[in-house]
Amino acid sequence: MRITLAEIVKIAGGEVVGDAGILITGISGIKEARPGDLTFLANPKYATAAKKTEASAILVGRGVLIEGKTVIQTDNPSLAFSKVIDLVKDAAPKPFGIHPMAVVAPSAVIGDGVALGPHVVIEENVKIGKNTVICAGTYIGYKASIGENTFIYPNVTIREEVVIGSNVIIHSSTVVGSDGFGYIQINDEHMKVPQLGNVVVEDNVEIGACVTIDRARFDHTRIGKGTKIDNLVQIAHNVQVSENALIIALAGIAGSASIGKNAIIAGQVGVAGHVTVGDRVVVAAQSGITKDVDPGAMMFGTPAEEYTIATRMMSHMKRLPRYAEEIKALRGEIEELKKKLGKSDEAKNNS
Prior knowledge:
By secondary structure, the chain is of the alpha/beta class. It contains 5 helices and 39 strands.
């Protein structure tokens, strides 16, 4: 990589404050950067690191200056940095065409420009839209449908009748359309309940590695347009996730729960079954949602409460040992007062 700041501005936008002719030979984080590198500052808490960085130039927000540093002022430093990375990264080669070791059923409909890697299995009546890439070892089940320009990494399983939209990314070892966890107890035995529905993943969704999304008992489990799901997430049967939600690693969403538009479900959050989480709700990490949450709320704790209440409760919990000592001392004072009052009453009676 050899590119000047002036050329970078053409790609990422913004304005150079300093020497636009500086040659950039690499990109790096703000702490790891060396001379010749380009880095970025998006979070003010790294301002001290920005002053110490050895990077030759820094992408910053509008109006931001760093003493002694050449900067590129942009509307969004993180986005600008991503554009530069996309330009210079050495991407792994993608599959091209249909590999001779791929297995494609005769009734499958394969669009123009589709790439299938080795050991991909495409079952009967599958439909795959144009320019979709399916990497090695992936299984696409009976009557599944995949849209255009979707990228599926190796060793993904997409079960029968699942619908995947266009411009979707699915990372390795994810399973979409596994049976929902449904049983009834008869004579102390657990009898399996058939799961007859499917999963619908809408356009522009990204699903991380080792995610499991269960098929519905009847209708659909749905992942709304633009939603992003991190690694190691479990989404149970009949869950409805609305548009542009964020679901972070190790979250678990139980059956028939609903997640609203632009909601954020942070890491290790558990959402109970049949619960509705409203639009724009933020659930902080390791929280447990056991009841419906109104739109726009911020929740924390197990069971989760409104964030300010939950943090106040946590603060008081930390003070419990001190409170216990204070209560013990107050009880002692009360007992002493009782003794004094008792003696006073006794003296009055004797007189």
